[in-house]
Amino acid sequence: MSLLTLEHVDKTYGQGDLQVHALNGVDLTISKGEFTTVFGPSGSGKTTLLNLIGALDRPTSGSVVFLDKPIGSMNRHEQAAHRRFHVGFIFQSYNLIPVLTAYENVEFALKITGIRDSKKIHSQVTDMLDHVGLSELMHRRPNQLSGGQKQRVAVARALVKHPKLVLADEPTANLDSKTSKEVIEVMLRMNRELHTTFIFSTHDPMVMEYARRMVEIRDGNISQDTER
Amino acid sequence: MHLITIAWRNLKRHGLRTGIALLAVAAVVLIVIFSRGFVKSLTESSFRLYIDNMYGHVRITTEEYALREMLLPLDHMMDGFNSAGISSMVEELEQHSSVRYVMPRVRFGAMASRDDDMVRMMGIGIDVQRERTYGALAEDISSGRMIKEGNEILVGSGLMEDLKAEVGDRVTLVFSDAFQSLRGRTFQIVGVRDSGVSDLDNVIFYVPLDTAQDMLWLDDEASELLVYTYSTDTTEALLADMRTLLHEQGSDEYLAVPWNQANPFVEMYSEMDNIMFAAYLLFVVMGTIVVVSTLTMIVRERTAEIGMMSALGLSSREIMGVFILEGFFIGVIGSLIGSAVGGLLTLYYSQAGFYVEAFDMFTSEADILIEPVFYLSFSMENLVFSFIMGTVVVTLASFLPAFKAAKLEPVDALHYGDD
Ligand SMILES: Nc1ncnc2c1ncn2[C@@H]1O[C@H](COP(=O)(O)OP(=O)(O)O)[C@@H](O)[C@H]1O
Ligand SMILES: [Mg+2]
Q1: Residue B401 parent element (H or E)
Q2: 3-state secondary structure B197-223
Q3: Domain boundary among B175, B198, B228
Q4: Which of B108, B110, B109 is nearest to B173 (CA)?
Q5: pLDDT over 70 for what percent of chain B?
Q6: Do B305 and A80 make contact, defined as CB atoms within 8 angstroms?
Q7: Does the C-beta of A86 come closer than 6 Å to ligand 1?
């Protein structure tokens, strides 16, 4: 069943001579439960695509529809609400709130969805940190965690509210290959256990290997779309 | 809840910046407390001088006297209700529940010669017993004693110097009586009055009321009655009472004037509040600029983080909230420090006092009563006001950077500084 549909999506940055066509007529359908990678060289449009899918930005033209809702034409406020409830983000850097502990970072994402039941919050947060293997370190602040540990907290935070979609923009770009593997494996496990849809971008072939669907993007166009 | 935690912990995270902003806020609050304490004490102590020495809470004179007061006339005296004498009028006023003290006074001009110079002065005939009970005059006696009766005078310290006299000396004064004839009389100086205010000490001497009446050829008369109630704040009530009483007694030729309307300088002091307000507003603006620029720098540093929070689904309002809370905390803590230090300092200077030389010059040049040594006024109201003002202003100031933070597009914020 389809979760997300992009039709003829264009994204242009800037004006006049400085115009950059980051995406040119992208058509893409994502189904529920996918574990999909978007790959391509730097500047090809991966981040732009993920931002549109995650309702962080609006397309210049074309439509982005999420479960029958046209998220591409929502206003800022509606987009924020959409992200809050339905989308989990994992970024390459600047991922966690530095003044909150690992536990609090995960808790924060859950609390802003409006859940008040503190018992439920506690069990959900500790569960999730357990899933990503971080129970021991949950009272540490981000600056007391390694890069891989931080990304695992980010995974836990993205998933704690059980969103329909998790977007990860080059989540392993700052990690060594061993840690990259650990993080991507945690993501894959979450995808299997919770059936959460994952879309992640990367240009690391080792990380791509884990995807069940590979969408290649070049100069703002999808040049290849393979499933295995 | 979490927004509060985030804001609070960020204060420590940006320790140096927060520290500078806190210091600025504390300094401004301190300045505000100081200047308000200063104005309050200045006006209060000056008001006290006017009340004690010149106007009481309400001063009653004849209308004519009030008009010609500068000339110290002797032909517009009060002779009591229905001309029954001032003594019985004083006693009658004292029966009133709102009245605490009544002091009849006769003011007149006099001169003495010293070497080749004439020393001009103002005599005040006082009801010794009643002035003693009130106490202000007796308090200021720096040497000798209070006058009792007969030809004794109490002389201002500055006037003593002009007369080149000492306690115990005899001086001959020249004056004109109620019938305009020039007369002279020799008095003994029994005490020196040093109020600290040269305007008073340089010109005034005091003589018993009956002696004054006798030498000036007055009957049971006075030029003015100073009427005091229990507190300066209830002057209005006293005034109303006095006016009613005068009217009831058919003494409409008598004028009752409250202390704060008796002299243009007293009214000027009230203006001083506004001038001081303008002065410390300047510091408030400067403090506000420090806070705004500090928060603006913090917002810039945390741009990517703001983008991340926005990606999490935080609304613009909530993002604004984080920075306003940070401003609020800076405001509260800075104001608290400022109020605490300001409280201690004003408390100290309310006991120890300052000497301001300029005031001494000021009061001898102009016809204004200011004490050269003044005591900062300590008041809880001042501390609370300044604390609230600091907190409110800083919180409001933080809206500007907070608004900038909230306005950031999440995509731009997230990739701020990427390339
Ligand atoms: N905010 C922006 N303003 C102008 N150009 C941009 C902006 N963001 C991205 N671009 C341009 O759009 C193209 C695609 O960028 P991006 O989506 O970040 O690629 P990728 O994530 O694959 O590296 C690039 O040429 C990039 O320079
Ligand atoms: Mg990118």
Answers
A1: helix B399-407
A2: CHHHHCCEEEEEHHHHHHHCCCCCCEC
A3: B228
A4: B110
A5: 94
A6: no
A7: no
Q: Dmax over Cα atoms in chain A, in whole Å? A: 56
Quick one: B393 and B309 in the same domain? yes
DSSP calls for A124-189: HHHHHHHHTT-GGGTTS-GGGS-HHHHHHHHHHHHHTT--SEEEEESTTTTS-HHHHHHHHHHHHH
Q: Is B114 helix (H, G, I), strand (E, B) or coil?
A: strand
- Interface A–B counts its CB contacts (< 8 A) at 72
Tokens found for residue B348 = 């100290």
Q: Tell me, what's the pLDDT at B360?
A: 66
Q: Tell me, yes or no, whether B130 and B18 share the same domain.
A: no
Number of domains in chain B: 2
Give the pLDDT score at B418: 57
Dump strand ranges (E) for A32-125: 35-39, 61-66, 69-70, 87-90
- A20 alpha carbon – ligand 1 mean position (Å): 8
Chain segment A81-112, per-residue pLDDT in tens: 999 999 999 998 868 999 999 999 999 999 99
How far apart (Å, rounded) are the C-alpha atoms in residues A86 and A107? 16
Q: Which residues contact B396 (CB under 8 A, 6 or more apart)?
A: none
CA distance B400 to chain A (A): 20
Asked whether the beta carbons of B175 and B73 are under 8 A apart, the reply is no
Evaluate if residue B171 carries a pLDDT over 90.
yes
Domain that holds residue B137: 58-228
**Best-predicted range by mean pLDDT among A87-96, B26-35, B368-377?**
B26-35
Task: Flag whether residue A69 sits within 8 Å of chain B, measured between CB atoms.
Answer: no
* Lookup result for tokens 């959409």: A82
B19 and B125 inside one domain: no
Q: Distance between CA atoms of B400 and B402, rounded to whole angstroms?
A: 5
From B240-254, B373-387, B393-407, the region with the lowest mean pLDDT: B373-387
Please report which ligand is nearest the Cα atom of B419. Answer: 1
Amino acid at B106: V
Q: Is residue B241 part of a domain?
A: no
Paired with A5 in beta bridges are A29, A65
Which residues crowd ion ligand 2, with CB under 5 Å? A 47
Full strand arrangement of the beta sheet holding A2-13: A20-31, A2-13, A61-66, A69-70
In a domain, B252, yes or no: no
Query: Mapping DSSP to helix (H, G, I), strand (E, B) and coil, where does residue B19 land?
Result: helix
Q: Which of B303, B409, B411 to mutate to test the pocket of ligand 1 (most atoms within 8 A of CB)?
A: B411
Pocket flag, ligand 1, residue A41 (CB < 6 Å):
no
Q: Which of A63, A73, A74, A79 is nearest to A28 (CA)?
A: A63
Are B162 and B114 contacting, i.e. CB atoms less than 8 angstroms apart?
yes
CB A8 within 8 A of CB A62: yes
Let me know whether B91 and B216 are in one domain.
Answer: yes
Given the structure tokens 């000056």, which residue do they identify? B46
Give me ligand 1 centre to Cα A48, in Å. Answer: 6
Tokens of B244: 């009613």
Instruction: Show the tokens assigned to A165.
Output: 């979609």
Tens-digit pLDDT profile for residues B222-258: 999 999 999 888 999 999 999 999 999 988 899 999 9
Torsion B48-B367-B161-B359 (CA) sign: positive
CA B48 and chain centroid, separation: 8
Residue type, A50: L
Q: What's the predicted TM-score (pTM) here?
A: 0.79
Q: Do B309 and A97 make contact, defined as CB atoms within 8 angstroms?
A: yes
Q: What is the model's pLDDT at position B364? A: 62
> Which of B175, B197, B228 represents a domain boundary (last residue)?
B228
